[in-house]
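Query structure, 281 tokens:
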């Protein structure tokens, strides 16, 4: 109960001190939040369905040590180029020349695509519970995501809410987080946001087939990478996580134990933040 109350207070203070900021970039209305010290800069990109404050607990934990920006992909950003240009525009608006990019799940594809376009602006990558599908999964799973994006929004929201309830069973203070994400999923436009980000799965899969990350690329050889995964991540197999590590010569992998699941930043927050802080130093 005390820990749940503490999280409630952290969220309240976060919202009081981190108003949603808007950047209109062409037809796209980007939402983001920014806070922290003027030191190392970090940009957070959450998983499917995320808003700019979906990972607020990570923002709050890192801001005493660095500047943290987190983004929400607008539903009008329909191409990989739209997304990378929008992120670049936010960084430009904030005067950030180089940043560490942290991507969870779908966000891991987002930040890697940004690195493909703008490697000179990337000082490091943290790839959390993400990877590249291999074999038959590389064809089937993006196709399934595309099909799910076509079902009625009300049904899609029920399915995602049910999935979040399962994923959050191992979280610290699961009741708080389930209530938090249920409220996010009840926000206007939540169904459109989830549908849009599911459709992006197929587009990112196609993008990386056309622009494969190879260990021989100069920027890949130079950029430090922290990979965070878990023994029982149902989103990506151990083989896919190992493959991700093989792509980056300067990578290290933190494999968290069973029970950590796909949402490691919620199930193992202390280890997650510690890994980020060690990576930054």
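Result returned for the query:
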């Amino acid at each position: 109960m005390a820990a749940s109350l503490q999280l409630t207070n952290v969220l309240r203070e976060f919202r009081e001190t981190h108003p949603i900021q808007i950047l209109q970039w062409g037809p796209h209305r980007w939402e983001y939040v920014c806070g922290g010290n003027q030191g190392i800069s970090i940009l957070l990109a959450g998983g499917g369905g995320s808003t700019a404050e979906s990972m607020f607990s990570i923002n709050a934990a890192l801001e005493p040590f660095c500047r943290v920006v987190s983004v929400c992909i607008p539903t009008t950003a329909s191409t990989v180029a739209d997304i990378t240009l929008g992120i670049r525009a936010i960084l430009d608006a904030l005067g950030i020349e180089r940043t560490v990019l942290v991507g969870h799940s779908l966000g891991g594809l987002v930040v890697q695509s940004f690195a493909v376009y703008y490697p000179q602006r990337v000082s490091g990558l943290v790839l959390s519970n993400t990877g590249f599908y291999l074999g038959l999964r590389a064809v089937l799973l993006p196709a399934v995501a595309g099909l799910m994006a076509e079902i009625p929004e009300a049904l899609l929201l029920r399915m995602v809410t049910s999935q979040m309830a399962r994923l959050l069973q191992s979280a610290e203070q699961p009741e708080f987080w389930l209530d938090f994400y249920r409220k996010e999923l009840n926000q206007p436009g939540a169904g459109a946001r989830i549908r849009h980000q599911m459709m992006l799965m197929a587009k990112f899969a196609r993008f990386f087939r056309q622009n494969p990350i190879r260990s021989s690329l100069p920027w890949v050889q130079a950029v430090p990478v922290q990979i965070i995964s878990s023994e029982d991540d149902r989103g990506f197999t151990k083989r896919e996580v190992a493959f991700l590590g093989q792509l980056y010569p300067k990578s290290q992998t933190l494999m968290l134990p069973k029970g950590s699941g796909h949402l490691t930043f919620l199930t193992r927050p202390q280890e997650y933040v510690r890994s980020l802080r060690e990576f930054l130093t």
